[in-house]
Design a protein that fits this description.
The chain has 321 residues and is of the alpha/beta class. The protein contains 10 helices and 11 strands.
Length: 321
């Protein structure tokens, strides 16, 4: 007999003999309830919610999504909060790696904590961001949490830049050069990113650069979903410590992981998103721009949007990109 704990309008109940089909219905019902729950929960209901989320994780269900059917409810995260230009209406073939499976624009992630009862992180209460980042790196250790440590990675690529940066760039995963040197974005794509940062009128050492994954996938393949789920909490902790004014997600993998939505790059770009109180923009990954230089003009538009948000002077044309 399978017992499922459900929180329904403040009451707890158990359902015996749940079939896979009914479990899916329970999942949808629970996701809707979680979306509608107030931010302040009584301890009993909060515990039941945490247990239900853990139960779904054990079944391999990690993401909770809800599609809005009305315009009256304001989603809490992963929602465009502004637009600088019209959306693109077509997507070149070379953007396939940059895109995830298309989904409705209004699909949003339900803001559920991963573990409501996890012990405090080592960096909790540390006011010096540089020291807090060192504690996160120590906690990451010589990571063996996913399969990548057995698939040829040479070293962990944590992050680089100013711990007090106002601007943070997040890519998907280290490449061969990064795996050799232990620093993100040092290969050809990194050189292009340096030029993009310079064109914005700032220096690489004044921003912070990291990836969703800290280990190189074999042959630079696209990161797998479970790898992102395993490694991204460390990226989230880096963001929390640095607390930048603006985050730029480089490519579809970074955007999808941060926003928890599936959508083509043509829909994700050109908008501001609210990520835990930080403004987030999406642009093309530099590696993609190397494959299709025609899209550099579009990436420059994204960076101009970021420069305006940061109060930087915006030149009409990028130089050196």
């Amino acid at each position: 007999m399978l017992l499922v704990v459900l929180a329904d309008r403040g009451h707890l109940r158990t359902l015996p003999d749940v079939t896979p089909r009914s479990l899916f219905s329970i999942f949808l019902h629970s996701a809707t309830l979680a979306y509608r729950m107030p931010s302040s929960l009584n301890p009993q209901l909060k515990h039941a919610l945490a247990e239900r989320v853990r139960f779904y994780h054990e079944l391999g269900i990690y993401d909770f999504y809800r599609r809005d059917t009305t315009e009256s409810r304001e989603p809490k995260i992963a929602v465009p909060v502004g637009s600088q230009r019209g959306e693109a209406t077509s997507t070149p073939r070379l953007q396939r790696r940059e895109e995830m499976t298309p989904a409705p624009r209004k699909a949003v992630a339900i803001p559920i904590e991963e573990d409501l009862f996890a012990p405090p992180k080592p960096e909790a209460g540390v006011t010096d961001p540089a020291r807090a980042l060192r504690l996160i790196r120590e906690d990451l250790g010589d990571c063996t949490r996913c399969r990548l440590h057995k698939q040829g990675r040479k070293q962990i690529v944590f992050g680089v830049g100013s711990p007090k940066a106002e601007l943070m760039f997040i890519g998907e995963a280290p490449g061969a050069d990064e795996d050799d040197q232990g620093e993100p974005f040092v290969g050809r794509a990194g050189q292009l990113l340096n030029n993009m940062i310079k064109a914005m009128g700032i220096r690489r050492e004044d921003v912070y650069i990291a990836n969703v994954l800290k280990c190189r996938p074999p042959n630079n393949r696209t990161p797998e979903r479970d790898e992102c789920d395993t490694c991204s909490p460390f990226m989230m902790r880096q963001i929390a410590v640095i607390n930048p004014k603006v985050i730029v997600a480089l490519g579809a993998i970074a955007a999808k992981t941060l926003l928890a939505i599936n959508a083509p790059m043509a829909e994700l770009r050109g908008h501001w998103y609210d990520f835990r109180g930080t403004r987030l923009a999406v642009t093309y990954h530099p590696a993609f721009l190397l494959r299709d230089p025609r899209q550099k003009k579009e990436a420059w538009k994204d960076l101009q949007m970021v420069m305006q948000e940061l109060g930087l002077p915006v030149p009409a044309k990028a130089t050196g990109v």
